[in-house]
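Chain X:
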Amino acid sequence: MPTARFTLDPAFTIAQVNPRLFGSFVEHLGRCVYTGIYEPDHPTADEAGLRTDVLELVRELGVTAIRYPGGNFVSGYKWEDSVGPVEERPRRLDLAWRSTETNCFGLSEYIAFLKKIGPQAEPMMAVNLGTRGVAEALELQEYANHPAGTELSERRIAHGDKDPFGIRLWCLGNEMDGPWQTGHKTAEEYGRIAAETARAMRQIDPKVELVACGSSGQSMPTFAEWEATVLAETYDLVDYISLHAYYEPVDGDVDSFLASAVDMESFIENVVATADHIGARLKSKKKINLSFDEWNVWYLSRTEAEVSALDWPEAPRLLEDNYSVTDAVVFGSLLIALLRHADRVTVACLAQLVNVIAPIMTEPGGPAWRQTTYFPFAQASQYGRGEVLDVRVDSPTYETKRYGEADLLHATAVRAEDGTVTVFAVNRGRTEPLPLEVALSGLDLTRVVEHSALADADPDARNTLAEPERVVPHRVDGTALADGRLTAVLEPLSWNVIRLA
């Protein structure tokens, strides 16, 4: 049986993992907010209407920066609608998702939600550059962050929030390259307004961190040219360029789906090359980092029909994909891709957090439960903190229709401050186990703490309301560490976490 191999050596590293790599995303879309994180009539709801059962799962998941309020929603967003007494907030049509937004949950509630998650949860706020512009972005920034003494800061205080929200990380619009976006712009138009907004926001706070919109996907016809044009306008004014990517099996092609991270890694490397080209052209020593602020498995092909059938309901069931073991293995591989590029991907947001293509599902008035994708994220967030080691695999390969030859093994490793090492590995093979050998050089490691795997004899197994714990990670026996060599067998179609101390 062919064996996959790689070497780990602390002399060869990628970068320290930025905690923001484990971010997520809350958008006013479907049931992400209403009956997701916020349901005042739920038996577990706290005094603010937040579901405490969901809060517990979010804390366990280990998310950090949480992007808000969109997404496509933000391009029609009027921030003023979401503040002040709830009973006075207007109801609005949400053009992005053909829904009615009640604004019962708004900016103050979002900040309170983050505080209840804990200190690891950081706000990541998007401004509307679709139907609005510089003035409204500045007003939102002043309302949110200025301590006191101005009309807008005093308005926040009057609304019950004495302390500033302290939002450091801001997205300059969302997917402005997409024709589906309300207020869609050309790269020249967007680059100009993004630069104007960035320059003005830095007048309020020079230390603000700003994300310019990159392409909505590598397949966009304007990809790379969009990044080049936008960064030529904004390079010295922003800190990040964004990337968005979603994956699903196309025409039943599971083998290509399992190799989705091949495309994700290519996307990252191509954006880095484009950004660095503009930096070289401008003779700048600055490096633009990447904010992969939307990523997931998403059965996107179903969405258009779902949305077009709506007639402006409140919080409809939308994008509620139920994830299988196969989906979770691909999802884990996408996490590995992000970690393997931690030198430049320093913000990432799993889209989304609850109900909408999410690791957490809820039933109105009923329970909350973990999807299969919950486990790889929670394990990566818990054990993926530290320095990413440079993993270059020697792996058996297989052929895919979309990406050509792909490795059966996709892997990375992270060394924590205490010297422990965690290997994250995916076996893309659907039918055969994959033996793994890892040579350990210069690492004082003597034992296997744990080898856990997410796999199942039924690759379509899922967690549901009826069977919320059908799929959970299980212990793998037989993994050994001796004479500086780790040996393991990865089950077919599996996500693996091997912890070494």
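Chain Y:
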Amino acid sequence: MPTAASADPLPEPDTRAEAIHVEDLHKSFGSLEVLKGVSLKAKKGDVVAIIGGSGSGKSTMLRCINFLETPSSGRIVIDGEEVKVNADGSPADRRQIERIRTRLAMVFQQFNLWTHRTLLENIIEVPVYVLKVPRAEAIAQAKVLLDRVGLGDKIETFPAFLSGGQQQRGAIARALAVDPNVMLFDEPTSALDPELVGEVLTVIRDLAAEGRTMLLVTHEMKFAREVANHVVYLFEGRIEEQGPPAEVFGNPQSQRLKQFLSSVS
């Protein structure tokens, strides 16, 4: 029997602050209840992959966290600040929402770049006109970010002349321009041709390696297993199973998750 001195030391407690805390989140569109009491936590530096079939509520959950959709009920805390809501779930303080949104950056499926603006103009828009960053400073930072995502030579290019992968990398650079505390990715590769997926995933992988806090809705199971430190499986608006990637992918407990993984493998 090992002595107390030779016993394995206890693991260090995780003292990281919470970046996202979602509690009992509900969302209905008329009589259709899409989210049925979802609770989720992410600490600073976590990469949480959110997986599930079409219609499971993945994208709706991300949009509610950013208040692009109004939750029907529930509690959302961003960086320790609880979002104030009315009885119907709508924001009680619009200025608070605007302030909190400067800490969150969302990357969408369809890129959402302004087609009438160059890539550089897309990236400096929010820093200059919303955050009031001096224009010269915003331009300098945008050039750094575009170099970082491999688009340093596309500064004056309009989105129509970029591939889908280049547009999505530009959208990621735009999201980074506000220096967000949390990045929300809503299936960032789903609109891309297969040969362009890898270039976007490489950028996201690099961000994860930097310690960026991310919630990532994805159908790229191999990528989720490699990059995330926590995986959430949604089924019909509820969290069916969650845990470390090795457990969720390697030893799924629920029959629904087993069926889902077999269908996407």
